[in-house]
Specification:
The protein has 467 residues and is of the alpha/beta class. It contains 14 helices and 22 strands. Strands 1, 2, 3, 4, 5, 6 and 7 form a 7-stranded mixed sheet that branches. Strands 17, 18, 19, 20, 21 and 22 form a 6-stranded antiparallel sheet that branches. Helix 1 packs parallel to helix 2.
């Protein structure tokens, strides 16, 4: 590939350097020069710390992803990097390629679940997440004397390899009828390769064509309105379940045979039971937004639950430290380390769920009903000014420092008391606060919601829940 060097190094807008990745609005605070600069700076780090300097790259189906990817590759090449370009596909395929080629690093161009005018970059270095301070350190290199070197760019198609690895050890004994909602995201690039080899299944696929305009609905399965088309498909076709992906295929949404949304902290219960049968006292990490039911039921399964900070990067790094075979978070980032690589791959998680359901005789709805019933809010997101979100959390923490109940403040503030529990935290990826509440009684849930609304109002946020 020969690319004309039409790019220049450019200082980063501070707001695009996020906790887990680099993300912004294309044409406003992120452009081709941003991508090129990421290539040059990240490439410098990889080249200076490794002997070979190889980086896998790829991109999702957003309209701006191809041009950003070209600029990224040029920047990496001029850092002397051996670029392995796997083209368009879901983010988990990039993670897989990192292991498949045993590369030094990987960069994915993706806007994930954000609106279509957003885009960004997710990075991995030596099989560890490249995040937090690592990302902040890139801006220190922009004004450095970065030498222009001669690297290479080679294209590889690994879609078959990726699909086959996901399907490895997936055996389904009983017939299942499955609805898949690709949400016009990057998973559409490989979905046919997976379902064509999936045994004892009838598969109905909607919104398969990759389209960065996302014409059917926004590609975020944590928002109930985005799941309505899948729910209708499940009910109209009498499916056993529905599976939904976000824009870059690293988060999974689930609908049961009755058309009810099964949130990640609910389907993690089912997946954890299989893990509990395979391991002795396995450590399972759950993010701070997850249900207390998950925590309590994991203990009953003789698992060791660990409540941890929200964020797929944090979860994946914690998994390595404590040798966890399975972990996840409320947003649908779920990671397997037992028979997989320890990263968030929605397709692999979906297949593991199908393996469980396809080897017993209860419906998904019947399994979920076996667990304690609670009343809860979904993950509520509230827009705030970017420069205020963490300050608001600090204000709330100070006001609630002597509140009755158990206080967990590793990420925002979560309080558990006789009513149930509630959480208020700042998003690390968007200019938002996220809130949740849960109780075994509806009236107690309303009381918890009232506490959240009161605290928000004290910080000048007038927000009312639709309880």
């Amino acid at each position: 590939m020969v690319l004309e060097n039409k790019y220049t190094l450019e200082s980063f807008d501070p707001q695009v350097l996020r906790e887990y990745d680099i993300r912004g609005i294309v044409g406003k605070n992120l452009n081709e020069n941003t991508a090129y600069t990421i290539g040059r700076t990240f490439g410098y780090i990889v080249k200076s710390k490794t002997s070979s300097g190889s980086v896998v790259t790829g991109f999702d189906g957003r309209l701006t992803s191809p041009i950003l990817h070209l600029a990224l590759c040029q920047g990496l090449k001029e850092s002397g990097i051996q670029v392995i370009d796997i083209g368009m596909g879901p983010t988990p395929m990039i993670y897989f390629a990192h292991y498949h080629f045993n590369s030094d690093a990987a960069v994915m161009v993706t806007g994930s679940h954000n609106p279509k005018d957003y885009n960004g970059f997710k990075m991995v270095f030596q099989k560890h997440s490249f995040f937090a301070q690592d990302i902040q350190d890139l801006k220190k290199l922009v004004n450095s004397d970065l030498e222009v070197l001669k690297g290479t760019i080679v294209k590889h198609d690994i879609t078959d390899d990726y699909a086959n690895r996901c399907l490895k050890n997936i055996k389904i004994k009983n017939e299942l009828k499955i609805a898949w909602d690709i949400a016009n995201g990057a998973m559409g690039e490989i979905i046919d390769k997976v379902v064509s080899k999936l045994p004892n299944t009838e598969n109905i696929i909607i919104n398969k064509d990759v389209d960065g305009n996302f014409p059917s609905h926004h590609p975020d399965p944590t928002i109930p309105e985005n799941m309505q088309q899948l729910i209708k498909t499940v009910l109209d076709n009498k499916c056993d379940l529905g599976l939904a992906f976000d824009g870059d295929g690293d988060r999974l949404g689930v609908v049961d045979n009755q058309g009810r949304i099964i949130w990640a902290d609910q389907y993690m219960l089912i997946l954890s039971k299989e893990i509990a049968e395979l391991y002795t006292n396995p450590k399972i990490i759950m993010d701070i937004k997850c249900s207390k039911v998950l925590f309590d039921e994991l203990k009953k399964m003789n698992c060791e639950p660990i409540i941890y900070r929200t964020g797929h990067s944090h979860i994946k790094e914690k998994m390595k430290k404590v040798d966890s075979p399975f972990s996840g978070e409320m947003s649908g980032h779920v990671c397997y380390g037992d028979d997989f690589y320890g990263y968030d791959d929605a397709m692999y998680v979906a297949l593991r769920l199908l393996r469980v359901l396809g080897n017993q005789h209860k419906s998904l709805n019947e399994i979920i009903l076996e667990y304690p019933k609670t009343y809860s809010t979904p993950e509520i997101r509230i827009d705030v000014k970017e420069d205020r979100k963490f300050k608001i959390i600090d204000e709330i923490k100070k006001r609630l420092s002597d509140h009755k109940g158990d206080i967990i403040d590793i990420d925002g503030i979560r309080i558990q008391n006789d009513l149930g529990w509630f959480l208020i935290r700042a998003s690390n990826t968007q200019n938002q606060l996220t809130c949740r509440a849960e109780s075994t009684k509806k009236e107690n849930l309303l009381s918890l919601i009232g506490l959240i609304e009161e605290q928000l109002l004290l910080s000048d946020i007038n927000f009312k829940f639709n309880a």
